[in-house]
Amino acid sequence: MQLEQKHWIPVLAILGLLIAAMVVYKGLSDNGPPKLNFKNNLRAQDSLRSQFMPVINGNDSLRVRSFPNKIVILDFWAAYAVSFSPKEHRQLAQLKHAYPDDVAILAADVEDKPQAAKKYIRRHNYPFHYVDGTKLFNRFQISRIPTQLVFLPGGHLQSIFTGTADSTRMDSLRAILKKY
After folding, report:
1. What angle do CA 101, 107, 112 make, to 5 degrees?
2. CB within 10 Å: which end of the chain, N or C, has fewer?
3. What is the pTM of this model?
């Protein structure tokens, strides 16, 4: 079978597009999506659970390991963030009330002005341990706010949730709490 000369240009154009698509795909797949890279890198970091975070409105510091017999939800949030909704904290507070002896919630504020964070805490008074999470957020290059990291008793990182919480996430958190 011989290709007529008038068909060469369209065939070459299609071939060029296919090669360009393969090059782009290869470039993206080597680096991986940023969200996936973030999650893989975070899972590889054993030191996260040992990092101290200053308590807001206190002189102490806490870390995930401060709660060895509990499931710890490390919730990175910021009142200034468009994607953050106080509804998520209400839902986490309901989980804390349902499993008071099984879960600890570290609400790690990220880059809010101190007065804004303190005002939020006073206004809502959720049963959380409020800490300054800015340094950890930046150090571990966490990809977005809100992000919730779920650690099992003993400090094993079980789950990473990014973005606005929905009913599926809350169901997943309930399932983790019921299991342990």
Report:
1. 165
2. N
3. 0.76
Of the listed ranges 28-32, 38-42, 76-80, 130-134, the least confidently predicted one is 28-32
Which DSSP string corresponds to 73-88?
Answer: EEEEE-TT-TT--HHH
3-state secondary structure (DSSP) of residue 101? coil
How many Å apart are CA 127 and CA 27, to the nearest integer? 45
CATH class of the domain at 34-179: alpha beta
Q: How far apart are CA 175 and CA 129, in angstroms?
A: 22
Q: What's the gap between Cα 80 and its chain centre? A: 17
Q: What is the largest distance, in Å, between two alpha-carbon atoms of the chain? A: 82
**Token pair in block for residue 88:** 């998520």
